Amino acid sequence: MAAAPQPLVLAAHGYDALKCVIALNETQTPFTLKVNSSTAHLTIPATTTQPATTLSGANVIARYVAFAAGALAADDLAVDEWLEWEKYVLRVTLDKTALSTLIETKIKSATFAVGNSLTLADVVVGVALRKSLEWLPQASYPLATARAYVAALFARPAFASAVTAVIPVAAASTSPQAPTKKSLATDAQLLGKTYDHVLGLIEALFVEAVDTAFPGMLDRLQFKVEVSRTKMPKFGDYQCTSSMSIFTALKGSPNAPGSPRDVALAIIAAMPTNPVIEKLSVAGPGFINAFLTAPFVANRLELLLQQGVQASPIKKQKVVVDFSSPNTAKDMHVGHLRSTIIGDAMCRILEFQGHEVLRINHVGDWGTQFGMLITHLTEAFPTWKDEMPDITNLTQLYKNAKQRFDEDEDFHKRSKDGVVKLQAGDADSLEAWRILCEVSRKEYQKVYDRLDVRLDEMGESFYNPIIPRVIEMVEAQGITQDSDGAKVVFTSKYKQPFMLVKSDGSYLYDTTDIAALWYRLHELKADWIIIYTDYTQQDHFGLLFEVGAMAKILDPAKHRVNHIGFGTVNDESGKRFKTRSGETVRLVDLLDESKARMKVSLQERIAAGQTTLPEADVDHAAELIGYGAVKYFDLMRSPQSNYVFNYDKMLSTNGNTAVYLMFAYARLSSIVRKSGVDMDVLSKQSGVVKVTDPNEAALAVELLQLQDVLVFINKELATNWLCTYLYTLSEKVQVFVTQCRVLGSPEQNSRLLLCQATLKIMHTCFKLLGISPLDQI
C-alpha cells in the first residue's frame, strides 16, 4: 500500500518564521505553531501538492504555501523579481546609508508591491523591510514611504496576529550569539575565574568584534562566527575561520572588503580589549589565530586546583539513557560490551554536567522465546516448582530449548501455545517466567558489578499494562491504516510501515517501543532520550520517532531524541568476534582473559625490577587495568564504527591504550609523591603557577580544554572525543616531564601544581570513562 501524504513539520527561525506564518494566515491554510526559544515549529496538513524534497528557507516555504493555496500570485514573474531583490540585494546590504538609499529608491508606493492587491512579494519584502527599518533610526533615516508601506501591511489582521504569535522568536533571533558589550561576559569569566568553556568565551569575543567591524552582519544575515582549536600551538590556541564566509556574503555589496584578509584585519582591529586574548595574527587566506594570555591560563589552573574539576554551566535536563538491554535467559556476550560501556560513559558525562540521568536497562524479558524456554524448563525439569534445577548456565539452557524448538515439531507447537498461556496470565507460566528473569538478572548484575555500571531495569514487560492506552492515543490522531488486518502507520520518510498491532491482535517491538516512548516523555517527564543499540536498528528508531511526532507523543519543539547505532566487534578477518569453536564470546570470559593477561604482564615487571608494586596488589591492579583496557579499546573509537578486537594491541604499554594512559598517570603521581610537598597546602596558595616555558604552556592550555570537549560531546554524543582528549593530554604530559625538570628546579612549586592539575583532569577523564586509575603500577 502506498504511503499517504503526511503533514509537513517545518522549523523556521526569527523573522523567517514571521514570513511563513503570515503566508499561512493570508492563505487561510490551517496549521499549528509551537514557539521554542528562537525557533518556530510549524505543522501544515498534508496536501495534494506535497513537495518531493525537504523545504528549506522561509521564501521557499512561503511560496509553497501560496502555491498550494492558489493565492498571493505565487507564480507571477513580477513577484519573483521582488523576491530576488529581497534575497540578493536588500538582505545583504549592511551599510546603513547604502541601505537607506536602496529602500528609498525601490519603495515608491505605500500600498502594494505588485498590482492592486496583496501578493507574496508584500509578505516577503514587508517582513524584511520591517527588520531593516528597525535597524535604521527614524530620526536619521525618515524613509516615510517605506515606513507607511510597512505600517499598512502590519495593520492587516493576518500580519498582526502573526506578529503576536511569532514576535518572541523574531526578537530572540536578532542575534542569538551577538550579545552587546554589556552582556558579552562577566569580569570573572574574562579573568578565568569561572568554569565557562574557553571556546565559548573566545567565540563571544569574536562575535563582538565581527559585530563592530561589520554592523548588522550578525543580526540581519543571522551569520554564525566559527571558532575552533588550532592544530599546532605555534599558530595560536584558537582560530577564527569566518573571514572567508564573511567576504563571500558581502561580495558585491557597497563598501565590501577587497579580500578575506581585509576582513580578518578589520575583525582584529575591532576586537575589544580583554584579559583573555594576548595577541591575534592572520594566517593564510584569512585565518585569525588567537593566543591566550598567561594570567588567564594561570587563573583557570588555580580555580581547578582550589575548587576541583567542574563542568561548564549548562542548562540542566532530565535525560533517559537506554543502554545495555540484554535478552533474558541468555548470557551477556561481546556484542553487549559496546552498548553497556558507551551508554555508561555517556551517563557519567551527563551526570558530571549536572543533568538528571535515568539509566534504563530495556531488557528483552517478553516475547515468543519465552514460550520455548518455559515449555523446555517445565518439561525437562518436571519438579521445577519444588526443586529448581541449576539454570545459571543460561546459554546452555537456551541452546537446549532452541534445539528442541527447531527439531521437534510437537515441541514447536507446544512452545507457541506456551506464549499464549503466558500472555493470558497463566499462573505457572508467569512463575516460570519470573524465575528465568530473576536468574538472568543475577547473572547480568555480576557483569555490571565488574564493569562498575549502574542500571535500573525497565524491560519490555514493564510497558504491557499501558500498551492498549497508547494504541488508542495513536489511533485518535487518525494516522493508522488497515493492512491485511494489521494496524499500521505509514510515513512519507520510510518505505516500511510502523507495525502497531499484528493481524492476530498481538503486539510487536514497535508496539512496546512506542509505549516506552510515551512513558518516558510523559510519565518520567524526560526532556531528552538517548538509545544505544546496534546499527541495524537505525531505521526502526527513526521510524519510531517519526510516528511518535505524528501521534503527538513526541514534540520536536520540546523533546530531544537520539538513537546511536554502534558498529560490530570483529576478529582479524573482519568477521564478528567469536570463540575458536564459532560460539559468541561471553563478556565474562573476555574480562577474565584481559585480567589474566595483565596479571602476567605485571608479574613480569615485578620480576624485572620495573615496578615497586607489592605482590599482594597485583590481582587488584590487573583487574582495574584489564577491565579499563577493555573499556578504553572500545570507547576510543566512534560509536558507529566497527573495530577489530585484539588483546595484544589492547594491552600494549605504547600508543593510544588505557595501559599507556594509566602508566602515564602513575608516573606523574610518582613525581608528585617523591617531592614530599603537601599538595593540599600548596594548591591553596595563589600566584604560584607561572607558565613561561612553551612546553608548560602547551600542557596548561590543554588542561583548559576539558570543558570544551564535554560541551561538544553533549551536542554530538561522540564519547570517543574524551578518549582523544585524554590521549592528547598524556602526550603533552610526556613532553613536559621530559623537557621541563620538576623536582629540584627553580620552578618546582609551579611545575608541581601543573602536575597536580594534570592529575586532577586525567582522574576526571578516567572516571567519566568508567576507568579507575592507579597511583602506582
Automatic annotation (TrEMBL):
EC top class named in words: ligase
Domain of life: Eukaryota
One BP annotation, GO: arginyl-tRNA aminoacylation
Localization, UniProt: Cytoplasm
Primary localization class, coarse: cytoplasm
EC code: 6.1.1.19
Listed GO CC annotations: cytoplasm
Domain DALR anticodon binding: 661-777
Reactions mediated catalytically: tRNA(Arg) + L-arginine + ATP = L-arginyl-tRNA(Arg) + AMP + diphosphate
MF annotations from Gene Ontology: arginine-tRNA ligase activity; ATP binding
Keyword terms of this UniProt record: Aminoacyl-tRNA synthetase, ATP-binding, Cytoplasm, Ligase, Nucleotide-binding, Protein biosynthesis
CDD domains to which the protein is assigned, alphabetical: ArgRS_core
Segments forming domain Arginyl tRNA synthetase N-terminal: 200-292
InterPro entries assigned: aa-tRNA-synth_I_CS, Arg-tRNA-ligase, Arg-tRNA-synth_N, Arg-tRNA-synth_N_sf, ArgRS_core, DALR_anticod-bd, Glutathione-S-Trfase_C_sf, Rossmann-like_a/b/a_fold
Similarity comment: Belongs to the class-I aminoacyl-tRNA synthetase family.
Self-association state and partner proteins as the record states: Monomer.
Protein name: arginine--tRNA ligase
Organism: Aphanomyces invadans
